[in-house]
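Follow-up to my earlier ticket, as requested here are the two runs.
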Amino acid sequence: MDKEILQAEHLGVRYGRKGSAALDDLSFALSRGMALGIAGESGSGKTTALRCLAGFQKPSSGRVILQGVDITGGGWKAMKALGYPVQMIRQDTYSSLDPLSSVISLIEEPLLIKGKERKEARMEALGMMERTGLSTALASRHPMELSAGERQRAVIARALMPHPAVLLADEMTASLDASTASGIISLMRSLKDEGTSLVVVSHDLSLLERIADRLMILYRGKTLEEGRTDEILQHPAHPYTEALIAALPGNGGRMLLRTDRMPERSQSCPLLPRCMEARAECRKRRPVLSEVSPGHSAACFASESES
């Protein structure tokens, strides 16, 4: 295996006086050309995880190791010192692009910040537009004059200009039609094949199935299941993962979670109020990630008893 480029070690983020956890003990290792998918509902901690990895959010606990350097809490200064090896593709393309700037000036800006001459930066930016499938005829346009798919490609082109080792993508196809989304997915797979490492968060498992080598399932900040993407989707070991798979189009949308929520308990399984397979153990203590098959782990007492 290639040397690990990015590591998250027991990351935790807490907000508010009571210290409610937006992220709780997240750990993984990412090697060159590997794509990690992080799935879960809104509020599961996916975007918070990306913000910690990008240096935008200081974790309450744990560490972020980038290319062997501890950058925890270092923010943009730490990223600058390493040459901006991590770039983030946000879900909201409108807020990612200055509406008063032209497309070409937005794409070339990262190189100008690094000190390149404008003529050289402009040539590279035009080349990046072609590489990402964005017509160079759009160079003088402004973001509001582009389609949703064109804006997303412009965001990706800008993110690629510093030649990052890692791309972080937050719901990158959420606002796109199926055809446009397919083009973006193909582009991301090509980048992965060229050696760029990816962390892609989405509520859409069908998207992650097409991109991610490994998959993590988050719920209320906790990792409930992790392993190879194909293994998890074919043999889910956690009721919550089963529910996410059942909700995919064509799977019938079977009801696998409770709608009459039970009272929450601080020391119980986080899924307890919704789980239809809860047992006495689930109310007494929280399950921890345990291996159910080689390279495949789940935090569920039911999966522990079956393994």
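Run two:
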Amino acid sequence: MGRRASGRADLIGVAVRHEKRIDWQANPLREGNDLAGWVLIIDDRTDYYRWQEAARKAELLATTATMVGTLAHELRNPLTAAKGLLQLMGRRHDPEKNRGYANLILRELDRVTSLLNEFLLLGRAAEMEPEAIDVTAFLQELLPLLEGEASGLGLEIVTSLEPVPQVSADQGQLTQVLLNLVRNAIQAVEQEGWVAIGLSSSGDSVALTVRDSGRGLPPEVMDKLFRPFFTTKRSGTGLGLAVCQAIVYNHGGQITAANHPEGGAVFTVLLPASATTSGAGKIDVLIAVDDQILRYPAEQALRAAGLKVASAGGPGGALSLAGRYKPALLMLEQPALNRQDVENIGRVWPGVKILAVGEPASYEDTAGVQYIPSPLDYDRLVNQIQSMLIAY
């Protein structure tokens, strides 16, 4: 008792236009060892928090506009080509040429489909069919395909594969990540160069590395590599690495890029070891939120704070991952929270902390749940989750 306390109070008032957001601080006044009273300091931060909220919305709108605009530009090219070919087919009655035009149209439409599929993977959890994968055997099966792509350019694929635990992953999506990273590495290497694939254990994770003997990554692109539609290639879409990141994050892992001290670039994928060998992987936060606009920024903010994070769609999606993850904290949306979910969560993960986004529920069964108001203040989200984890 009698210790300094501070916090925030949100949405004070009887009408939306009168809402206030304040920071408060309570300091004890003492006479000797006795508590004589308190000094309460209240700072009206309404304008500051409204500005932050407006800035976040503006940033979101700007990002959305940029992504949609770039996607529209990328889609326009193949659609324009297909339209032109259809017009030519209507003017000419040469079956042989029309057959060739039809093949070109199908190719351009396949490109449109590919772009849309990759775009839809960004910022959301893709449907997965996870299975226990022996990563060493998985890489050895793919090696002939990778060597075939490299040998045509006079390059060499070298491997250094240490024994590692199995991982729980979707094999098709893991293949997509590896092929993308290796193809990028091959394109970065000059003739008679090499691409090295490494596999090793790193704590409770499996580390997969792809390194090349190229010139390395320029400093000015390091912060942009995983940004959607950023590319240094003339014909690239800029979605490859962004999709890789989305897939790896969806598997509860991490992906990083750096320049190797001995030259060239190295991409590292960390995946949690499978539950079949080490039990459910311990993570800090499992975000069980359907709203992609809420979930994706929350993931980024928490990962930037150094927390181990995975995501799922709603309480049901979270419970389906019980064999893969053992979270210290579960983040939900209040509208998706009900008594049955709270009971099921408590049975599956005894002692797990629950943070709900929204206003407190009225029923008593969620008395142990903590709440954070929406729209999210991501600084506050990180601070509140870190405080809850300390008490875990």
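The only thing I checked on run two: The chain has ten helices and 15 strands. Let me know what else you need.
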